[in-house]
Amino acid sequence: MTTELLIAFIAFAFVTSVTPGPNNMMLLASGVNFGVRRSVPHMLGISLGFMVLVIAVGLGLGQLFEQFPPLYNALRYAGAAYLLYLAWKIARSGAPQANADSRSKPFTFLQAAAFQWVNPKAWVMAIGAITTYTPQQGFLFNVVVIAALFALVNCPSVGLWTVAGSLLRRWLENPLRLRVFNIGMALLLVASLYPILIDVKGTL
């Protein structure tokens, strides 16, 4: 991989990781409701789960969906349904102090990693990374390098949203403000589905 291509890819990884999407909306809400420390497994699950997804796409899963579009459509619809469920849970979240001792818990590492497989934005990012930035010479090695670099860039990028959420915790101690915030995050999570589900088919 040339230096120019590497720089371009890192820029792509940063921009796609730090811009709003389902993962970042959930991490912002997690930072508010649970704080940074309890959200660390969620952040690591996103980055490492996405790395596995990129490798899988590079090894041929993207081509499989290209040959059998109904499989990909089924994945999109399952992802959309799950995101709607998560939005409902976020909208119903209580105060941070209450969450610390209640049944409400942040995402675990495995939950966050598994979520990448039904996250439409993650698929768009993975397919873009493999098709645009992975040289054909030494392809398998480059797939692993691309996936590892994406994880390294992704983790601190999504972590910014968690930190932002934690900084809002004190301001959101007011129950009404927290309620409005959580409902707003839930609506943004639902809204994040629209452009992804409309455009993702054209990226395959």
Automatic annotation (TrEMBL):
Query: Mind telling me what this protein is named?
Result: LysE family translocator
Topologically, how does it sit relative to the membrane? Multi-pass membrane protein
Instruction: Give the UniProt entry's GO cellular component terms.
Output: plasma membrane
The residues that cross the membrane are: 44-62, 139-168, 180-198
Where does it reside? Cell membrane
Give the organism's phylogenetic lineage.
Bacteria, Pseudomonadati, Pseudomonadota, Gammaproteobacteria, Pseudomonadales
**Which GO biological process categories is it annotated with?**
cysteine export across plasma membrane
Keyword Transmembrane helix applies:
yes
Report keywords, A-Z: Cell membrane, Membrane, Transmembrane, Transmembrane helix
| Main localisation | membrane
- MF term (GO), any: amino acid transmembrane transporter activity
